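ASSEMBLY PREDICTION REQUEST
Request ID: AP-0331
Submitted by: J.K., bench scientist
Number of chains: three
Total residues: 971
Priority: normal
Notes: Please return the full assembly, not individual chains.
Input sequences:
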Amino acid sequence: MNEAATRRDLPGIAGSAVFFVMGALALWYSRDFSALGSVFPRTIAVTMMVLSAAYIAVALLRPGAAAPAPAASTWRRVALMVVLLAWAMLLEHVGFLATSIVAYAAILVIANYDRWTPRMALTYVAAGAGVLGSLYSIFRFVLQVPLPAGMLL
Amino acid sequence: MPGIEFLFGALTPFNILLAVGGVVAGTIIGALPGLTATMAIAVLVPFTFGIPPSSALIALGAIYTGAIYGGAYSAVLLNTPGTPSAIATTFDGYPMAKKGDGDLAITLACLASVIGGLVGAAFLLFLAPPMAKVALKFGPVEYFWLAVFGLTLIASLSEGSVLRGLVGACVGLLLGTVGVAEVGGDIRYVGNFQALLGGFDVVSALIGLYCVPVLIDLVATPDPHLKLTHQVAGFRLGEALRIAWRSRLNLTRSSLIGTLVGILPGAGGSIASLVAYSEAKRVAKHPERFGKGEPDGVLATESANNATVGGGFIPTLVLGIPGTPPDAVILGALMVQGIRTGPQLFGEQSEIVYTFIYGLFIATILMLPIGLVIGRYAFKSIVSIPKALLVPSVAFLTIVGSFAVQNNAHDVQQMVVLGIFGWLAGRAGFTASPIVLGLILGTIAESGFVRGYLIGNARGEPVAEFFTRPISIGIIAFILLGLLYPYFTARRRVRGPTNE
Amino acid sequence: MNKIAKTLAGAIGLTAMAAGVALAAYPEKTISYIIAFGPGGESDVSARLQEPFFKKYTGQTVAIQYKAGAGGAAAWSQINSVPGDGYTIIGTNLPHIILQPLQKDVGYKTADIANVYWFHYTPDAIMVTADSPYKTLKDLIAAAKKAPGTVTFTGSGTNTANHLAQRRFDKLAGMTTTYIPSKGTGESNTALLGKHVSAAFSYSTVGVQLGSQVRCLAVAMDKRHPALADCPTFKEMGYDLVSGAYRGLAVPNTTPKALQKQVSDLIGKINKDPAFVKSMEDKGFAMVDIGLDKMDAFMAKEQKETEAIAKEMGITKK
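STATUS: Completed
Returned structure:
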């Protein structure tokens, strides 16, 4: 417990520093705005800077419990983020269904911790196809959402 | 009872079928993250054109109330509000699910939604015209103070650090300024990104900030998403009823708050549930339990947001001004049908209105059995589906859901970027709720501030405008009460710790 | 020479016939009708009123889709990226599609949009509450002249049709009023009915919708609107103000001219249907018929006028 008490809330301090900079940038970029259009952003930016600075000060002076870092697999997290980003960027150009199928399969692999057996692979592929297929159909045909076709589908 | 003769008109087999169908469709659509009540109604409106107006209204009202209830499913099970009105349900709903009480949370949500819906409908039945007059008294200045009130609530609800919550709210406020300014027309913080010209869409931000971090953390460990501490048998209805009865004051108060907020044009379930939640926490015997899985929290939020359905219909039907965003769509549908809203709707054309109101009552009551059954299946499927299938399926829902809001791929990109940002912010201790609520309240606050200033300025007294209107003074009093109350109670606790 | 000419003529004739047959078969399936705004607004309502008539005249259905964002710019900037096969039509609005590119970089230029028909407009109208002290337009102008800036008008949006109308009228009447922008008709109606502002520069459709709760002081049309018989026109009161928001349809600019004409003719047919006209006029819409043949002249005129006002208001981009 003593060890935790002396640990500073580094993530919180880092975050606050980022937000402080964000506020400063917001202030800087608001110099072109009209009178009415700048009141709000400037007030918020200044408030944000003051509050983030205050948090950093408090966190430095009064060590509190930092957010515990959960034991985790980093590569899976990063992989998921990459897949999601690629999915969002590509769906319009390559096609919604095509990108969804690839991304779905990729995430399935990322999220799976059990050892792969042929039977499992088949079950997952079938189940995944079923879920993806029905969800896609609901959105495309029932709700009439125009999912982009792109190059492929 | 006004218009009681039309009760039988509402009880026709056709109308009951519409009510049931509407509740089922609405609940399922509302449960899917990204599909809001507004979208559910917009999609199903064309089907209502061939049928008589009162039946069309019943169908739309049923969908609406079902969707607001359905939003609780993903809020409880995936920490993602299915609709913006379910944001506050994540505060205690998800912790309950993590503790193994997810099925109880869903049943409580159902009970609360039904009760809230009935209260809202009752106001609609008995007090619509006078309440509409009250709604009109709220001008830009009042909305500004209401938004400020909402923001102070965010601060007091932040677990851990009030400062972090406030910074988060500021981030949300700033995100809300991106895009074209409503007054003045400035283009703010867009740079060269076409995607940002329309600003940050609330629903995409909602999905991104709440759901994506959950997914990122889900893939990080092999543990199952929600554990089951007991057999999934029954709905735990008896238990839920007991809790609800114990909490009847909370339910009544939250429903009233929800109705009143719903009556105000432009304010909907998200604000209503936030206010109800913070009030429930403030007067609770054990406020520290809120945010960790306190059933009263779920009861407060779900009754408030469903009360906005009935409340929102008041200005919609009496004045022709939409009370909540879905009401705008319903108004359009009524217009196409040739129904003119306004005081005469309650006078000469009262058959339509009263048949509809009784139909809404029926739909809300039917939501109890329907909601319990659907909830049971939702819970079982989320709990038993293996993680390897759950994560990609939910990911797909986030992608397609954020696309479906405006049929625009840019919203999907916004969602993912905000999601990753949200995860990083979460690691630093900044949670999603202050940011999202800042986003929602920011636009209201700025609009109220600038318009109020312009109006006051035209009269030559810009500052007085903000502080001399009676309703504003009342709201300012609430703000001060909310800010100072914790100090009083803290002092009292320090002075007499043995009094517990 | 004759033989070659004849063969050429025959080939051309055949191709024309084939094209004609293909064109004549249009439409063979559902048409996508994109609305650049959210559901429930005027664009949505007028599209839904057209829907049954599309079915009547072509046997095909239209699927209405919403693509809201950036005041319509999100949809208009993407219209040319879909195939120009006549199966995607998009609702367009004036002065929006002229004003927006003038003010900022919105991802499209006015000339990029291939309009085929303008089928109605909602005339600007000044409205006050039914119990307002201003009984006629003269009262309002007198009050504004007595105390410049104190008379407040609300309207939908900044630098939109309502706002332009308010500026124009200020000039015509020689007065100064303050414009309070509202986000959409809902907010502007609340501000009006709640008496937070003196009056609203809104549309005739709103006057019809709010019915007996409001009094229409003037409407910007050539002749009085049938649904608002008690509302005088600005012209009657001595002010030359005929304006409003036009709504029409466009197709991707890759659509062949012949196909564009077909779409234009189809809309024109719907626009002449008496049942359609009645359903529109009952709600306060005012019909116009600007088809493909009159399009270029009309757009040139609108561009000139709108640009002039925009420059005067100082809202063109630097």
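REVIEWER COMMENTS: The mean pLDDT of chain C is 86.
SIGN-OFF: pending second reviewer
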